[in-house]
Amino acid sequence: MKLKSLLASVAVAALATTAQAAEVELSLSHWVGAQHPLQPGGMEPWVESIREASEGRIEITIFPAQQLGAAADHYDMARDGVVDIAFINPGYQPGRFPIIAAGEIPFTISNANAGSRAFDEWYREYAADEMKDVHFCITHLHDPGTLHGVNGPIQVPDDLKGKSIRPAHGTMARMLNHIGAASVFAGAAEMRELLARGAAEMSASPWGSIFTFGAQDLTKHHLDMPFYVTTFAFVFNKGVYEGLSPENRKVIDDHCNPESAEKMAAKWVENEAKGRQRMIDEGHTLYKPTDDEVQLWMEAASPLRNEWKETVNKAGGDADAIWQRLEDTLAKYDSRVK
Question: Is it the case that residue 173 has pLDDT exceeding 90?
Fold first, then answer.
């Protein structure tokens, strides 16, 4: 009888564990492929860490490659409850999130490892107001990117005049327009198609992503200069987050912080950095600007900071104070372009 009683107790415990494991089931939607380094290197370890920390109570299923919606729609998908968690590029909706767009200004952030930690720490102060429709979790960056073209040269800003270029985000689009280029806006996943059908002659991208999105046979000419970063964020549907038990909410909070931002970016950064050497090994042409030519690029980007400040001030922010805090935080983590 004692053995039967023990077995019954074990069975009850097993059922309880199974029920507990299904306590919270969440969807995480993104728009890059499942093999993009951000998923196996960032999202999957993050999801597994949440599962372990919650002792199996929180299960998150990842839906890649725009399965649930277009890249530019992901913020609204989280807001509206189409998905529980969304990976967003705020720059895909130019003007909607003016404060976080500071990170898009070229020659501001030097790296995406400590830079992601710094940027997350800085933006956390403003996220609740700027992204008030959702629950903000983390923001992070990709490794500094540049311009990649079907033809060259790509050495100075004048080389872009009259060209059709896919920008990384709205801030870059404005810079390209100032220079005299035409912006052809599309998500990274559409980059190869644009180039293949001649709708764009160049694309902004970090180095490794040219291979990730299959454009390496089309873009053989590259501006060899750290130029810009792109900002990304993970956001939760507000109702889903607020509906979690205090215990489960703490698990999520413990995974929504500057440390998590740096971890999310780390493997992606590593993969991107390898892309440049791979292009050299495969015989691509890289154009390395001189110091004077780099200054020309910096001058071409200089109006963007004032435009950003005007936009933030119009939205009711103190742009000078916000920018100073960004510079101070980047300097704290040795991530500011000097």
Answer: yes
